Amino acid sequence: MDTPQETVVPATLRSTYTSASLLTPGTQSGTDGAGAQEVFHHLEGNADLVWTRYSDNKSIPIPVDKTALMKTGTGSDTLSFRHTGNNISLWDATDNTTRTLHIPDGQNLGSVYGTTGVASENYTDDDRTTARAFHLLTPAADGTTRDVPVSGLPAGMELWLPRAADGTSLLFFAKLDGSFRMVAVDRETGPVQSWTQPVPVSYSRARLSEDHIVVYAVNNTKVLVLPRSDLSAPPTELVLDGAGSVNPAEDLAVVGDWVVHRPSAGTVVLAKPLAGGATVTVVRASNLGVSSASGDSAVVLGRTTADNWGIQRITPGTDGRPVVTTVKPLPRPAARIQGLSLEQGRLVVTDPISGDRAAYLRTVSPAGTPEFGARSAFTGSNTVIADCLAQDAGCSAIQGTADGRVAWLERRATLGSDLLRVYGAGQYPCAFRARRRPHHRCVRQVRDLHGHQPAIRVQARRLGRPRDPRQGRGRRMGR
């Protein structure tokens, strides 16, 4: 007896990549869901968020907290869980510890940066004018919350909203003497440190790096660059590419001495030196949303080559230029097989497509070492095979026939009957329902399929052409 020969037919890849999305990228407040050591994101196959380490690309589910109303990034390796009442849980992915912020009565929590919550409260000053004060809240070692008021504001300065933060400073958008500024506040002790010269009111966003502050408006190609060492210095204007976009600076981050941005009119991520110079492409295609991360870095979902789709991290290289590293590859997975038949050298496989199934054909050599041909569509775009439960073997199976067609069973629980469908390339597609008589052409096909006249009475119709109920049951045929 000949020894059976085996050939592996390669799995067909799905037409779409593994699904993922970044947590809160490109926020106005600078509280994006990426930190110095990891990034928070959704990932196909996981019910909740996961976090992926840059060091080993390992993705780990976050702790389950069913009482949390929402989860938000903090511009760091810490994730914020907001609950009802006045409590905020802060979970640090780097050491798997959780601390709690208790929001004092009368204060409203705005943004959270790492373990620092920025809260505000309204009060009435001496001339009976309503004003707003800000507080920096941090969890203390004894379980209480440390409350540090923002102080040292010059007369007439009104803080509006926090816009960015790093380990030492918070940056507020503010108003002073009828004009708008960016104001730096000491994150630990609360006093105002310095502020910028007037900026246009639309320039209400900012990003921090170790040495620079970039102030910008999402709908303007011109950004303002300031040194961290002297915010009062005249800003340097830098013009970005993307003039044809509605929002050329919608997704913007600072990576070392470069500004990285994704104009809204396309999908490429661009980079330009803060000192001026030529623009370069760092990510060839991407999803909407660039996350600013600690350590002068950024994270984006996209690709740098033809097919390396994944979560990409952008960091300064040894020469200062942005370098892209894949943090989480998101390849196209193998399509899930939902039906298989092999008959007369014809291998037919069904794959899921938009809630149904589509059939594909390969020819297989019937003798010797099995060899297979190219994959091609079998059922065509106008004929689909209904989906069914994986554990329903009768429904999920497809049966090949000697004449090259396939047959399958379609469940119709709501109608109280099942449907037998038969299809072959270039053939007259038919559907048969129990307890009804078939069209004479379909009777002939079923006789060919089974070798004899079927015992059950069936009714046939063309696939894709439902019978008009106003036409009645149609002419009954003799046996």
Explain what this protein looks like in three dimensions:
Strand 30 (346-353) and strand 31 form a beta hairpin. This protein folds into four domains: 31-149, no CATH class; 152-217 and 227-236; 240-333; 340-471, no CATH class. By secondary structure, the chain is mainly beta. The strands form nine sheets. Strands 29, 30, 31, 32 and 33 form a five-stranded antiparallel beta sheet that branches. A five-stranded antiparallel beta sheet has the order 34-35-36-37-38. A four-stranded antiparallel beta sheet has the order 1-2-3-4, with no helix packed on it. It starts with 19 loop residues before the first strand and ends in an 18-residue tail after the last strand. 3% of the residues lie in helices and 45% in strands.
Which blocks of ≥5 consecutive residues have pLDDT under 50?
433-479
Q: Averaging pLDDT over every residue, what do you get? A: 87
What's the gyration radius in Å?
32 Å
How many beta-strand elements? 38
Determine the number of helices (DSSP H or I, runs of at least 4 residues).
2
> Whole-Å distance between the termini?
48 Å
Principal-axes geometry comes out as: elongated
The amount of helix comes to under 10%
Report the structural category: mainly beta
Estimate the strand proportion. Answer: 35-45%
Query: How can the largest sheet be summarized?
Result: 5 strands, antiparallel
The figure for the number of domains is 4
